[in-house]
Design goal:
The protein contains 5 helices and 7 strands, in the order E-H-E-H-E-H-E-E-E-E-H-H. By secondary structure, it is of the alpha/beta class. The chain has one domain: Maf protein (Alpha-Beta Complex), CATH 3.90.950.
Length: 194
């Protein structure tokens, strides 16, 4: 069942914008951000799985707010790096610019199809009574040699989407929201909730 009201278990402004629009696509859902509540102490993200991290965020927010809460965890998996940075994508370096620079440096000698990569996202909706529903989505592409575009956030300027034929950094929010890993995970979650 799709809840009539939920809270987003993230303070990442880019994720808030994307998740709010995607949750509203399920139907008439009132979406609140963490800014509407007293500060919540989230557990540190672990290194075991996207599912564990998404569920921990959602359960923490649901317990603190008394509302169903939507948590997510996502990462960029680069094949030439054995799936890294993966679950540690947000902690790969201190800033988005530093993460991109570190990634491009790690791929300096890698060419062609070996630069293949995907974004992976797991979303979790947790109710205050402990119920949880999860879903996953991926988006295939490759890592460009230089950043292109300023749209989106995180690794978007260096992720070339196979579906769009352009980097997420140059894609419009509407185009990205049709094919992104987060969009696919949210669509799958919406289908499960129905």
């Amino acid at each position: 069942m799709i809840p009539p009201r939920l809270v987003l278990a993230t303070s990442n402004a880019g994720k808030v914008t994307e998740l709010e629009a995607m949750a509203r696509a399920w139907g008439p859902v009132e979406v609140q951000s963490l800014a509407d509540f007293p500060p919540i102490a989230f557990p540190p993200e672990g290194e075991t799985s996207y599912v564990d991290n998404a569920v921990a965020k959602a359960r923490t927010a649901a317990a603190a707010t008394g509302l169903p809460a939507l948590g997510d965890d996502a990462g960029l998996e680069v094949d030439a790096l054995g799936g890294a940075p993966g679950i540690a994508s947000a902690r790969y370096a201190d800033t988005a610019e530093a993460r991109i620079a570190k990634l491009l440096d790690a791929l300096a000698g890698v060419t062609g199809a070996a630069r293949s990569a995907r974004f992976r996202c797991v979303v979790a909706l947790a109710w205050p009574d402990g119920r949880v529903v999860t879903a996953e989505g991926t988006c295939e592409g490759h890592i460009t040699r230089t950043p292109t575009g300023t749209a989106g956030f995180g690794y978007d300027p260096v992720f070339f989407s196979n579906d769009l034929g352009q980097t997420f950094g140059t894609a419009s929010p509407t185009a990205k929201s049709r094919v992104s890993h987060r969009a696919r995970a949210m669509a799958a979650l919406g289908a499960r909730l129905r």
